[in-house]
Amino acid sequence: MSDALNKILSGTEESMRKAINHLEAELIKVRAGKANPNMLDGIVVDYYGNPTPISQVGNISVLDARTLSIQPWEKNMLQPIEKAIMASNIGITPQNDGMNIRLFLPPLTEERRKELVKRANGEGEHSRVAVRSIRRDAIESIKKLQKDGLSEDAGKDAEKEVQASTDKYISLIDKHLAQKEKEIMAI
């Protein structure tokens, strides 16, 4: 196989791996009734005029299965953290005791669980689309190499390899989604 073909195949594999990593990061943010500091990833606080992640302005800890605690490093950050959590629309109302902010996760209703499963499936569909798009780009690149002189057999073998990678990553996405659905629906 040519260097260009190897580069396409390794790039395809790497891009598909990144799509899976992104899915995993997004699924962590979908809460399953258990307190997890990663739920607050993506929430930014106005820290002296700069948007800063909550994890960089305070210590986030899990007190019990349904309670998170945020202890800001500066007392004057209590209000901005509280406002950022309210604005993030994660469905949790912060409780401020003057020293810490506590987040009590309400038990999930059946309706909310189904909503979360739907959201997780939506993230999974985004990942499937990304993987298929990566496959399409790789096959187009292989066809271009064939026009530039790559043998037809080598091109077909490379396309089969790309399809095998696609199948592998699509099934991995399905496994992640099944696991997350099981976690969300568990009472």
> What is the level 1 CATH name of the largest domain?
Mainly Alpha
Task: Look at the structure and give the mean pLDDT.
Answer: 87
CATH superfamily of the largest domain: Ribosome-recycling factor
How many E strands? 6
> Any idea what the radius of gyration is?
22 Å
| Unreliable runs | none
Tell me the domain tally: 2
What kind of assembly state do the chains in view correspond to? single chain
End-to-end CA span:
52 Å
Order of the strands making up the biggest sheet: 3-4-6-5
Identify the overall geometry: elongated
Percent range for β-strand residues: 5-15%
* CATH fold description of the largest domain: Topoisomerase I, Chain A, domain 4
The biggest beta sheet reads: 4 strands, antiparallel
Percentage of residues assigned to helices: 55-70%
Protein topology:
Layout: H1 3-29, E1 44-47, E2 50-53, E3 58-64, E4 67-72, H2 78-88, E5 94-96, E6 101-104, H3 110-147, H4 152-185
Antiparallel strand pairs: 1-2, 3-4, 4-6, 5-6
Helix pairs in contact: 1-3, 1-4, 3-4
Describe the fold and architecture.
With about 190 residues, the protein is α+β, with helices and mostly antiparallel strands. It has two domains: about 5-30 and about 110-185, Orthogonal Bundle (Topoisomerase I, Chain A, domain 4); about 35-105, 2-Layer Sandwich (Gyrase A, domain 2), CATH 3.30.1360. Helices cover about 60% and strands about 15% of the residues. It is built from four helices and six strands. It has helices at about 5-30, 80-90, 110-145, 150-185, and strands at about 45, 50-55, 60-65, 65-70, 95, 100-105. The strands form two sheets. It has a four-stranded antiparallel sheet, with helices on one face. Helix 1 runs antiparallel to helix 3 and helix 3 (about 110-145) runs antiparallel to helix 4 (about 150-185). It starts with a helix and ends with a helix.
